Amino acid sequence: MRQTDVIVIGGGQAGLAMSHHLSAGGIDHAVLERARVGERWRSAWDSLRLLTPTRLNALPGAPDPGSDPDGFVTTAELIGHLEAYARAIGAPVETGIEVRRVERIGGRFRITTDSGAWSARAVVVATGHCDQPFVPPVAARLAPAIRQITPRDYRNPAELPEGGVLVVGASASGAQLAEEIHRSGRPVTLAVGRHSRLPRRYRGADVLVWMDRAGMLTELAIASPSLARARTQPSLQLIGSPEHRTLDLGVLRDMGVRLVGRLLDIDGTALSFSDDLARTTAGAQATLERLLARIDPVADAHGAPAEPRPAPLAPFARSPEALDLASDGIRTVLWATGYRRSYPWLRVPVLDDAGEIVHAGGVTPAPGLFVLGLRFLRRRNSNFLGGVGADADALAAEIRTHLAMSDRIAA
């Protein structure tokens, strides 16, 4: 059995950032990655770019990836950057290692993998927020003739069956894929649920840059009046395009995407939807107004030119509350309904009823077990490429304290 002080599970940005700070503290560790560095990014669709501009993507101890600070890197560019980063920091990554069991035995952890076992005094779960695409249980009632996919299955429109596509979910992924598939010539229907509308640029800068300057991206989780709700907020309805385009329901409607309300039920090919499109878009507009109201004083202080806030979307025509996919020519349903986390290998009692890891800022109730890379772990940008480093730094300090305590106990 191999031994080390800390095992980090996951070789994406969270695991690499953790490795950087552990190395800086002289802590012996290993990073176990089931496939390759940045593997989850390798399953993204062909045209995907990061939603955050390059200037906000710096990992600890490394320059921003890419040469255009206001541009949006492709996934291929990001994967190359992560690989180069792992080499530059000398991260002890072992790829192609699947973790099958983590359990606590005495004062140490036993990590069983498909290529042997490790013993460590601490473990960091760095598998991230976007672990597995979430598909709602109602999907089981869809007729077998209708193909079901998630954003992780999708590469480009050419791979889809002939016919129309229903995209369920109107946050970042759903809106982007609805637009791309519609532009390919396929009719698209978008089932709209809760979402956060924002302009891509506002008052001369990217809206996320303004949010960063206003301190919104680094807001502490403990400051949120409803942390559980904050952690389940839909992703921002943005697209990282070279043209810095805004993408919202108004844009999609104008280009011909059919919009319907929230999906309620499925019976074979018969689907029902809520008549809540107006209410949902009003909620998204209210969120937009709140965010821009916080940005405006910061933009004023920077001398940014005045700009009117985006007006509420024009009223939507009454959307259909029922569709029959067969008669409507829809052959594919794309579930852009978010992600969930799954830890079947974690045999330490730290999971809640929903299967999520219980933690306070990444520190779990089990001494020596930590988690990193989740949404709003410590800050609003905890699961952002440029936000994970601060959390990793804080957790490295927690790990040093834990290791020092275990040393005293052993003595």
Secondary structure topology:
Blueprint: E1 2-9, H1 13-24, E2 29-33, H2 75-88, E3 93-95, E4 99-105, E5 108-113, E6 116-125, E7 132-133, E8 147-149, E9 164-168, H3 172-183, E10 188-191, E11 196-197, E12 201-202, E13 205-206, H4 207-213, H5 227-231, E14 236-237, H6 249-255, E15 258-260, E16 263-267, E17 270-273, H7 277-301, E18 322-324, H8 325-328, E19 330-335, E20 339-340, E21 369-371, H9 388-410
Parallel strand pairs: 1-2, 1-6, 2-3, 6-21, 8-19, 9-10, 9-19, 10-15, 11-14
Antiparallel strand pairs: 4-5, 5-6, 7-20, 12-13, 16-17, 17-18
Going by helix content, strand content and strand pairing, the class is alpha/beta
- What is the CATH top level name of the largest domain? Alpha Beta
**Overall spatial form:** globular
CATH fold label of the largest domain: FAD/NAD(P)-binding domain
Second rung of CATH, namely the architecture of the largest domain: 3-Layer(bba) Sandwich
Radius of gyration, taken over Cα atoms and rounded to an integer in Å: 22 Å
CATH superfamily of the largest domain: FAD/NAD(P)-binding domain
Assembly context of the chains: single chain
Mean pLDDT reading:
94
**Beta-strand share of residues:** 15-25%
Tell me how many strands there are.
21
The number of domains: 2
Q: N- to C-terminal separation? A: 23 Å
- State the major sheet: 7 strands, mixed
Low-confidence stretches: none
- Following the backbone from N to C, one meets helices and strands in this order, namely EHEHEEEEEEEHEEEEHHEHEEEHEHEEEH
